[in-house]
Amino acid sequence: MAATPEKTSGSFWQSTLGFIFKIFLFSTAISVAIKLGGPYIHVPATDGVVLGLVLAPSLFLAILVTFSRRSPNGRARASQDRS
């Protein structure tokens, strides 16, 4: 029995709103942790520390994408995206 468009659409919006809500909560938790815990962490103000903090998110995502493309599921997903 095929799903009706209303059920598919509702499920999509529920999952999308749930994902957005989780990202919002995670972002808020990180913000509060930085606001309250930041003054207690003494990080030296050197060029190396700044460079590491700026490049860390990009390197993390590059590693994540590399490993996801090497996995069997990632390779199948990448080939489906191209077609």
Can you offer a commentary on this structure?
This protein is an all-alpha fold and 83 residues long. Helices cover 82% and strands 0% of the residues. The longest helix has 33 residues, at 5-37. The model has no long low-confidence stretch (mean pLDDT 80).
Key terms for this structure?
mainly alpha, 2 domains, flat
Describe the SSE topology:
Blueprint: H1 5-37, H2 47-70, H3 72-82
Helix pairs in contact: 2-3
Could you provide a short overview of the structure?
This protein is mainly α.
Mean pLDDT: 80
Shape estimate: flat
Domain tally: 2
Number of strands: 0
One letter per element, helices H and strands E, the order comes to HHH
Question: Main β-sheet: number of strands, strand sense, barrel status?
Answer: none
Uncertain parts: none
Q: Strand portion, in percent?
A: under 5%
Helix content: over 70%
Distance between the termini: 28 Å
Q: Based on helices, strands and strand pairing, what is the structural class?
A: mainly alpha
Specify Rg, calculated over alpha carbons. 20 Å
Number of helices: 3
